[in-house]
Amino acid sequence: MKKQTIWILTILMAVTFVSLLCIQIFYMKNIVQIRYEQFAQGVRQSLVATAMHLEQDETRHFLEDDVRQVETSAVVAQYSDRLPTLGGIKYSFKTTSGLEADLTIKGDVNELTKIQTSGGGLGAHYQTAQEAYRKRYLYQKGVLDDVILNIVSKASDRPITDRADSARVSKYLRQELDTLGLKMPFEFAVANYAGTILFKSADYQPSTADKDNIFVQTLFPNDVAGPRNYLKVYFPTKTDYVFSSISFMVPAFAFTLILLIVFVYTIIVAFRQKKLTEMKNDFINNMTHEFKTPISSISLAAQMLNDQSVRKSPTMLQQISTVITDETKRLRFQVEKVLQMSMFDRQKATLKLDEVDANAAIFNIVNTFKLKVEKYGGSIAANLDAMDAIVEVDEMHFTNVIFNLLDNAVKYRSEERPLQLTVGSRDLPDERLEITISDNGIGIRRDDLKKIFEKFYRVSTGNRHDVKGFGLGLAYVKKMITELGGEITVESEFNVGTKFIIILPLSKN
Questions:
Q1: Which residue among 82, 220, 282, 325 has its CA within the 20 to 30 Å range from the CA of 347?
Q2: Are 109 and 87 in contact (CB under 8 A)?
């Protein structure tokens, strides 16, 4: 798949996922807003109903008191000259205005009997009393407006604790909230016009951050005089209640995020695979070039051996033999590099660990490599200052690591100045050994430093004809040092030089 196609798909999918997430977030935000508004509306409705209940209770209180006064006056007017004192006769009646009442005539049994038997009996007195009540309440109906005005003026003088006690407020609030489906805990308080709390429920302690969660309702708003009092209600679990109603959206949002993460991971893998494919193609091209040169040289030497004149010259035979030997070694070296690829697919390399004196091994490598460095007009120095340099390593792989780093220093030498190579060792705390390999070559750019240990990766300056490679050398070095329990870092400045730092644990023996 082309890189452009991958980018187009990536952009389309990214826009799709971002749009989907924005829609879900917008939808959730709207639902939460609606739920808050519904909650607030329901609470306000409950508070209004509670205040109405309290007003009805107060109106009922004054009406009942007025009815008792009217009943007493009627009975006294009807039987003022012979009001009984013991016993009693009960009967019910209904006025023309629709009010119902019970009348009890109390007094001595003998007197009640006289009332029942004299003047037409109890029935006649009952009819007379009933007629008196009708006349009385017809009169009361005419002055009803005056009575209500009197009730309102008296009510405002009563203490708020009598007009709206804590038990009734809690009962009416609970009843109204449950009716609207708001079955959740609440705390309340009654405060005066100055904000002073007159009484409250046990756990009413809202913080300043909860001011948006306090609902206020005026108590007895129809009072024509007197200070105002307010009912304040606080819901500790308001947020949980609102968000519990949109809990069904959480799985959908979570699945969308999971899909987005999987999509991002897939795109990253696709680009890595694309990059890996390009690296492998470069590797194959480089490998073809690296193999082609020694094979051509060996083939040419073989053709020369078929020439009779060449076979007759010992000098020519010696030169051809040297060429074949050198090119065979070069070909074998390249094959070994390719075979090193198999190590990167294993979880752990097979190592033959021995105790090795790193100073001695490095000294031998430097002496062997010295001729190659001097061939390009350079110099190599060994500053092996470590007093304890016994490490437990696979000697073959350890030697290959040092050779690879020295070989890179020669490959990426600067054409503007003679190559200077320095190999050193020194002791570190906690029984560790530091090995450094520094050069004054072309250096490595900052962007390439974090990638040079990746398999198949090669810096752009490595495309010169004399530094062809597979991009496996430093990856191999990194893996081997890690397998040996050490670590490797690199310091480099472009056009100044590079320094590799290897830290290995000393042998415990």
A1: 282
A2: yes
